[in-house]
Amino acid sequence: MWDIITYSLPQILSAGVKFTIPLALIAFAIGLALALVTALVRISHRGGVFVIVKGIFRFYVWLFRSTPLIVQLFIVYFGLPYLTIPGILENGVKFSPFIAGIITFSLNTGAYASETIRASISSVPNGQWEAASSIGMTRGQTLRRIVLPQAFRISVPPLANSFISLVKDTSLAASITIVEMFEVSQQIAAENYQPLIMYTLVALVYAIFCSILTVGQNYLEKRTNRHLNQTEGE
After folding, report:
1. How many helical (H) and strand (E) elements, i.e. helices and strands, does the chain have?
2. How many Cα atoms within 13 Å fall on the side-chain side of residue 61?
3. What is the pLDDT of residues 147-197, one digit of tens each?
4. pTM here?
5. Long-range contacts of range 9-15, CB-CB < 8 Å, 24 or more positions apart?
6. Which domain, by its residues, includes 98?
7. How far, in Å, CA of 12 to CA of 5, rounded?
């Protein structure tokens, strides 16, 4: 058994460094930016044509929260190549496995994280908007200077949990041939006929990664809440 572990572990860790971690980091960064835009659009009070834009973003959130992630991966990677439009998309829309994974995970993360950010912004008391308006601040200035900093502190725990979940969800990328950690464990299991050992080993690697991220989450929460602790101490 130890021979299997010493042979397999370096390959699994290498796949984690090359694919799992970059896939999670890039997708989360893009998804977070998309989530912020989506949340700001949805809380906007603008009317007119902007209502259509809000409807589009609302539909996007509904779509990605209502369908399984693995189905989304299959649609982007296997389905879009069949989306042919004569004269425009003769060969469909084709992406490499890694790019397809980035697109899908980013869109999925953006949909879920947007609700977290929207809820965090909404949790800031309306009195702060009114107080800022009374001293001449515009809605945009109030949002940047007062509301978003508070919303960031509130949203840190759920967003950190979303990132940890994303790291685990990257195992689904094996279904579109991305050679991440789970895919490597499957390949080795097919060679040595020891699926229990291989899947347990890769599960432990995921557990270690997520445990490290949990420590980082706890540190970030303490940092963002340090001024509250100081106020309570006073």
Report:
1. 11, 0
2. 22
3. 888 888 899 999 999 999 999 999 999 999 999 999 999 999 999 999 999
4. 0.91
5. 9/201, 9/205, 11/184, 11/188, 12/181, 12/184, 12/185, 12/201, 12/202, 12/205, 13/181, 13/205, 14/184, 15/179, 15/180, 15/181, 15/183, 15/184
6. 2-233
7. 10
CATH code for position 199: 1.10.3720.10
d(CA 128, CA 108): 32
Phi, psi of 87 (to 5 degrees): 85, -15
Q: Across the chain, what does the average pLDDT equal?
A: 91
Contact 12, 181 (CB under 8 A): yes
DSSP string for 97-154: HHHHHHHHHHHHHHHHHHHHHHHHHHHS-HHHHHHHHHTT--HHHHIIIIIHHHHHHH
Neighbours of 20 (CB within 10 A): 27
Contacts of 127 (CB under 8 A, 6+ apart): none
Looking at the structure of the chain, the number of domains it has is 1
Distances (CA, A) of 97 to 17, 56, 94, 130, 154: 17, 27, 9, 49, 35
CA dist., res. 202 & res. 214, Å (int)? 18
Average pLDDT over residues 88-104: 92
